[in-house]
Amino acid sequence: MPNSRDYMARLGFDAQELSSRRHFFQLTDEDLARLAALRPFAERHNDAIIDAFYNELLLQHPESRLFFTDQAVFRRAVTAQKRYFLQLFSGVCDLDYMEDRLRVGTTHQRIGVAPKWYLGAYAHYLRLISSHLFREQGSSPDSELSNRSIQKIVFFDMSIAIETYIAAGVEAIQRHQSAIRELSTPVIQISERVLLLPLIGTIDTVRAQQVMEKMLARVVEAQARVIILDIAGVPVVDTRVANHLLQTTEAVRLLGATTILTGIRAQVAQTLVQLGVDLSTMHTCSSLQEGLEMALSMTGRAITTRGA
Amino acid sequence: MTVRVLSHQEMNIDNEDDVVLVRRAVRTLAEARGFDSFAVSALTTAATELSRNVWVHARKGKAFIEEVTDGDRTGIQVEFVDQGPGIPDIEWSMAGGHSTAKSLGLGLSGSKRLVDAFHIESEPGKGTRVRITKWKRF
């Protein structure tokens, strides 16, 4: 789990966010004062509400029950829930409170409580609290206001938890994207002075730059004379990809090496001609095999049949 | 010649990945309708150029992908619409080799050569609308 302060900063949870969120949820100082005043009520009903929450709802639900693998886990969850419940009535809603709620959210997300179960359980939880409140204090303008304050802080909490779910999803996607980018730009050394760069997939702005940089670094490192760019795995070679190939060729030329473009499909060749792209500054071969032969001959080598 | 629309889909272009999604939708449709591989390559490349133009110049726009027929033949028509800066001099931009975005400047002229019909209208400050059509060969 990430350090929660860093995580707060990444999600943009700061004093300004806190105050604008509280404003939108209309969670005022009066609400917090009312919640603090309800603290004795909360302490009186804590056990009954949380026990009912676990026994009536969570343990009756096969998917929720799976989270409680043994008695110790179950007891820890109940204890944590009781502490959480009392915090609703602390009368405080500051950055520390937000951080604490964030931790609750990340815990749910980490152990794999799906948002639908989280929201459904919370709705039930809220009903339990309300029914205990009205049973004890009767229906009056005062208890209505108390109930409303409880609703506000509960929804405030949920908004934070939901954001941790979303942030976790977004982060997973970013991790995967960077992993894919890493994977898809291998620079392979074929022989002493020959490098092969098989381009695969869509070359977007970030990748084009990465490919170029990685490639140039390797050219210098390996003192390469010939670089084979294979585009058989690129689905569409448009003017942008062509421009990228031309720029790479030019940069490679400045380093004293030569580029050979291979893997040009017939369809791609025709499309490039119609687009009006001029690749005459590059050596080209239709297949990688021909490209390899050309590269080896440029570096004074050849593939021969043994014994021939 | 009246062109009838057989199917219609609408896609947003809001980020660079959408360029890929539009291209994939066009490719999938062209392949499903039995376009030959050269036509598929030409059409998807043109669609990539034009949706990238939307992203690069306007940052936001739409692509309308339609299957059309004129009674004799079927085709695919794609329209790209944005409310971006527009093209001040269409003739200059269509001539090829000119770019306002550090590219080869062949996107518009090249796309026109890749398809059977190409229609462009643009007004500076208002946006651009480009429609391309590729007919299926027998």
How much of the polypeptide of chain A forms β-strand, as a percent range?
A: 5-15%
Assembly form of the protein: heterodimer
Instruction: Give the beta-strand count of chain A.
Output: 5
Strand order of the largest sheet of chain B: 1-2-3-5-4
Q: According to CATH, what is the topology of the largest domain in chain A? A: Globin-like
Helix content of chain A: 55-70%
- Largest interface, counted by CB within 8 Å of the partner chain's CB: A-B, 22 and 25 residues
Question: Strand order within the widest sheet of chain A?
Answer: 1-2-3-4-5
CATH-level-2 architecture of chain B: 2-Layer Sandwich
**Structural class of chain A, please?**
alpha/beta
Number of helices of chain A: 13
Largest sheet of chain A: 5 strands, mixed
CATH architecture of the largest domain in chain A: Orthogonal Bundle
CATH evolutionary superfamily of chain B: Histidine kinase-like ATPase, C-terminal domain
